Amino acid sequence: MIVGTNACGKSTLLRGLARLLAPTQGSVYLGDEQISALRSKDVARVLGLLPQSPVAPEGITVADLVGRGRYPHQGMFRRWTPEDDAAVARALQVTDTVELASRSVDELSGGQRQRVWIAMALAQRTPIMLLDEPTTFLDIAHQVEVLDLLADLNKVDGTTVVIVMHDLNLAARYGDHLIAMKSGDIAREGAPADILTAELVEDVFGLPSQIIPDPVSGTPMVVPIGRHRTGRAAEPATRS
């Protein structure tokens, strides 16, 4: 999980890992090879990327968009196979988008579109997935469903999942490794239980907080300390 404030470099880091941006120094390796030396289709068979705010071709249906996730696995003539059908069907099912399959993506709500994009990334079936804020626009129930699904892919299928997240508590609950970024640099990284402290939250986010155990998972949970700290309504100011 990669966390940090807006414009701190989270998405830039993800784009660099996906070969969409060339590093200013150093190299990115995919296995034993520099990613810059590989063909795009070879990279896409191994590494899937869901960017922030993707744009679908005008008029495309949900089924067609999800099916585009199979492109890296198809040959020169792009023959459709039973394996492609199975991958698309499973992606639609686990993202709760089966009933949307024949609809135009243009007609969907923000949350529905986000689930469709996640379905496309899942249909690609890569051993590495990079996702930039995949829970954006989703209600809390679908946020948990998506993160549960990605956790299952990691733990059951062995998929490496790298996620940019804004929600610190969900990042701490679902992430095995947390990277906190500040001003383009990595401020700290490690297991959430080891690094997510009130000092880190104040340093990276400028937010006073307390850290308590999540009552469900036992992972660190950030409780912000704002100006309004009780359930009582603020008393009106008195005139002198």
TrEMBL record:
<keyword id="KW-1003">Cell membrane</keyword>
<keyword id="KW-0410">Iron transport</keyword>
<dbReference type="GO" id="GO:0005886">
    <property type="term" value="C:plasma membrane"/>
</dbReference>
<dbReference type="InterPro" id="IPR003593">
    <property type="entry name" value="AAA+_ATPase"/>
</dbReference>
<protein>
    <submittedName>
        <fullName>ABC transporter ATP-binding protein</fullName>
    </submittedName>
</protein>
<feature type="domain" description="ABC transporter">
    <location>
        <begin position="1"/>
        <end position="208"/>
    </location>
</feature>
<dbReference type="GO" id="GO:0006826">
    <property type="term" value="P:iron ion transport"/>
</dbReference>
<keyword id="KW-0406">Ion transport</keyword>
<keyword id="KW-0408">Iron</keyword>
<dbReference type="InterPro" id="IPR027417">
    <property type="entry name" value="P-loop_NTPase"/>
</dbReference>
<keyword id="KW-0067">ATP-binding</keyword>
<dbReference type="Pfam" id="PF00005">
    <property type="entry name" value="ABC_tran"/>
</dbReference>
<keyword id="KW-0813">Transport</keyword>
<dbReference type="GO" id="GO:0016887">
    <property type="term" value="F:ATP hydrolysis activity"/>
</dbReference>
<dbReference type="GO" id="GO:0005524">
    <property type="term" value="F:ATP binding"/>
</dbReference>
<keyword id="KW-0547">Nucleotide-binding</keyword>
<dbReference type="InterPro" id="IPR017871">
    <property type="entry name" value="ABC_transporter-like_CS"/>
</dbReference>
<dbReference type="InterPro" id="IPR003439">
    <property type="entry name" value="ABC_transporter-like_ATP-bd"/>
</dbReference>
<keyword id="KW-0472">Membrane</keyword>
<dbReference type="InterPro" id="IPR051535">
    <property type="entry name" value="Siderophore_ABC-ATPase"/>
</dbReference>
